[in-house]
Each structure stands twice: as structure tokens, then as C-alpha cells.
Design brief:
single chain; 189 residues; alpha/beta; 6-stranded mixed sheet; two-stranded antiparallel sheet; 8 strands; 33% helix
């Protein structure tokens, strides 16, 4: 008589246990409230993302613009607290270079400037040199508290929600890194 075969049940249970273990650990971490101490983005991720106000913008001609007209693409917003100084003009050129460096993804992004007044000569010059730049007048504190440095950068999703805020001191490489990752993994816009 042949010897009885060993049962494969222990091996099956071991394989199922190895496959289920990551899900058990992930569930425990999620319900335990664990958050990583460091994330990869260089800006402040807003959770939950606040929606843009529905109105309050005006274009260069003074026509009121509904925020819904900006939906559909990712927005890189330069939010000015005052007139556009030399640093602001350099930042606008840098934002254009960042958009162009996104290559095939550059069509998914629009650059928007929110200023207290669209009659600023530096902004008019920038809009003339960069025809794809959108320029709007916005009331003070339209996107929240002003920055101490004179401007802030924001990334707004195609649904009109502010998802990441940046201080003025953020570098172009860091902003480019965040945009590249965001557009790579986002299916909207």
C-alpha cells in the first residue's frame, strides 16, 4: 500500500494568510488614524479641499466672471495681494516655463493671476507677452488670508476645489515636481 499523502490544507492556509495580512495591517492603520510624518508634496495639501467662491471675479474688461467658467482644467493660480512687483513678473515667467516643461500634460493646466486690479502695467505687459495667461480682478481675501510675502500660489482641481496652497518662497523645481506627480495620477482635467 502506498503511504498516505500529506494534506495540503496547512500550505493553503499559509498562502491565504500571507495574502490577507497586508489588508489586515492597512485596515488597522486606517482605522487607527495613522498618518505619515512626511509627505512628498511641497505645498500644504488641503483636506477637505474648499470650493472656490461662486462669484467675485472680473476680467480685464470689467465683465463679471462666474467661477464655473474656469472649471474643466487644473489651475495654477498666482494670488496677488497688491501690485505686481519685479519678483511677481519673474514668477509669472517661471510659471510659464513650468507649464511648458510639463510637455504633453501642459494642455491640462491653465495659469491664472488674481489681482486686486487688472489695470496694473506689469500684469498688462505679462498678459500681452503670454496670451494664454488668464488675468482676473478678485476682491481682497477671495481665496483666504493674504500672504506676508505679497502673493501665494494655489493649485485648483478641474472641479473648482483648492487642493494645494504654496507660500511665495516655494521654488520652481518643487512646484514642477508636485504638478508632474499630480497630473500623472489624476484622471480628471
Amino acid at each position: 500500500m502506498p503511504a498516505p499523502r500529506a494534506s495540503g490544507l496547512p500550505m493553503l492556509l499559509l498562502i491565504v494568510g500571507v495574502l490577507v495580512l497586508p489588508f489586515v495591517i492597512a485596515t488597522g492603520l486606517y482605522f487607527g488614524g495613522w498618518q505619515p510624518t512626511r509627505t512628498l508634496q511641497h505645498g500644504q495639501l488641503l483636506t477637505p479641499p474648499p470650493a472656490l467662491p461662486g462669484s467675485g471675479l472680473a476680467d480685464v474688461s470689467g465683465r463679471a466672471v462666474a467661477t464655473a467658467e474656469l472649471h474643466g482644467k487644473w489651475l495654477l493660480v498666482l494670488n496677488l495681494d497688491g501690485p505686481c512687483a519685479t519678483g511677481c513678473a519673474a514668477r509669472l515667467d517661471e510659471l510659464r516655463r513650468i507649464q511648458v516643461s510639463l510637455n504633453k500634460e501642459m494642455g491640462r493646466l491653465r495659469r491664472v493671476v488674481l489681482a486686486p486690479s487688472t489695470s496694473d502695467p506689469a500684469l498688462a505687459d505679462a498678459a500681452r507677452r503670454q496670451p494664454d495667461l488668464l488675468l482676473f480682478a478678485a476682491p481682497p481675501h477671495w481665496l483666504g488670508t493674504p500672504a506676508a510675502d505679497g502673493y501665494r500660489l494655489h493649485i485648483i482641481d478641474p472641479l473648482g476645489q483648492r487642493v494645494i496652497d504654496y507660500p511665495a518662497a516655494v521654488g520652481g523645481n518643487e512646484l514642477r515636481f508636485d504638478l508632474d506627480r499630480l497630473l500623472k495620477f489624476a484622471w480628471t482635467g
